Amino acid sequence: MLRIGALVSGGGTNLQAIMDAIERDNIDAGVVCVVSSKEGAYALERAAAKNIETAVMRKKDYPSQRDYDIALADYFEKRNVDLIVYAGFMLILGEDFVNRFENKMINIHPALIPSFCGKGFYGLHVHEAVLKAGVKVTGATVHFVTAECDAGPIILQKAVEVMDDDTPESLQRRVMEQAEWIIYPEAVRLFAENRLKIENGIVKRR
Ligand code: GRF
Whose CA is nearest to atom 2 of ligand 1? Predict the structure, then answer.
């Protein structure tokens, strides 16, 4: 079984989609622990409801970014985690974390990378920028996490139509329903089945 550790900061609908898909589709994987960067994140309740171990680790409780990164990495390593899923995790982690789980971390971004991504493009800001640009298609991207924000090898993408009367909130919802909750569990399945190979920074599916 693929042992998954999740990083969360908020509502956890992507975490829920992954946990549900693992049960429904008999994926040979299990979420074994969930760490939140914030107290009271609803994602923690979703995990507890499935009897999954949870922890809150706040950056401000550590003397430096480096100490935080090391504490998080130690936490996951102690639990023999094979894959780390960023599921609405609002912080960027440094090399002291990222280098210890190379090619074993995945993230979902609510746009079609390389558009509308990078520093500052998170949450509703992404959808606001999409509407401001007037593009007619957006979507979501699952990618491997590297030290550079939103720049790791792309695993899956799915396009979603932008409507004339969209608000950032309505677009966010449609991107989640029509893309994120579908491709994130699918990427976990591909990883669990060892079907993702990275060749020169490009993901090939086998
Ligand atoms: C999602 O839009 C995801 O793409 C982004 O953060 C949001 C998290 O939502 N990375 P949730 O916590 O999974 O509901």
Answer: 110
- Are the CB atoms for 190 and 196 separated by under 8 Å? yes
What's the mean per-residue pLDDT of the chain? 97
Residue 185 Cβ inside 6 Å of ligand 1? The answer reads: no
Across residues 120-145, what is the average pLDDT? 97
List, in sequence order, every residue forming a beta bridge with 138; answer none if it has no partner: 160
One of 1.10.10.10, 3.40.50.170, 3.30.1240.10, 1.10.530.10 is the CATH number of 1-101, namely 3.40.50.170
From residue 167, alpha-carbon distances to 12, 81, 116, 162, 205 in Å are: 22, 38, 16, 10, 35
111 in contact with ligand 1, CB cutoff 6 A: no
